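Example record

The entry below shows one chain as it appears in the dataset: sequence first, then structure tokens.
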Amino acid sequence: MELVEAIILAVLAASTPLLIAATGELVTERSGVLNLGVEGMMIVGAACGFAGAWLTGSTFIGALFGIVAGTLVSLIFALMTLGLAVNQVATGLALTILGIGLSGLIGAGFVGERITPAVHLAIPGLTEIPLIGRVLFGEDGFVYFSVALIVGVWWFLHRTRAGLILRACGDNHVSAHALGYPVLRIRTFAVMFGGACAGLAGAYLPLAYTPFFIPGMTAGRGWIALALVVFSSWRPGRLVVGAYLFGAVTILQLHAQGWGVGIPSQFMSALPYLATVIVLVLLSRARTGGSSAPAALGTVFVPDR
């Protein structure tokens, strides 16, 4: 029972940054913008989040630093792709490279430092329940926020007029513009939301997952978050399943190494990324009714005057 509980808790912790980052990217892509710079925004959020928490002693302030950092970096992407109509794929890749270098610069003075990790919820009588107590009532605030975030995004996209307009911009930006909707402004806000989520997801790593900062600590999680959006077919409900599935693969490969499974450790470490590639290939082959991606995804839009 204790081992099962420990594995479940580890899966939740590993899945939370994936879920937060992928949720933000889902909103961005539903607006018609393909931002491949999630990894760069996450690592900058990790560096700034740790710096904020170390300087102030507050995990909450650190999380805010991460959100602001991710948002500011996303504005660079928005300026290039929406303001100057630069290719979105090239800009996203450049943003990732920029973020990796910028995070190294920001976090250089904090390598080796430690902070107190985020406090976990503790409800007397409930947290002590075997197996489910710590899972449901003993997590940190990031885990509960990630669940509330995905529920809120689902409600926004499918139950509000604003969400319908955002999806219209992603499906046909020409028609949305003809109806009088400010496509570029809507997409800018969507990109900022995605950047804020990526920054928070990155900040989660040094604030709750590991109480220290090291360069490159996102370790490709931004790319997995991008793959999760495709895995979910741009649907929030499937995104939850995908995030916890890939989190489980990450944790189980670590336990497999601890159990002495006779497989090279390098292969086990690559397993989450290999699973990402396999799932994407299977999804592309299984799709017979055409792609479920937003029709205008990645397409540059220059409104008529």
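Notes for this example: The mean pLDDT is 89. The two ends are 65 Å apart (CA to CA).
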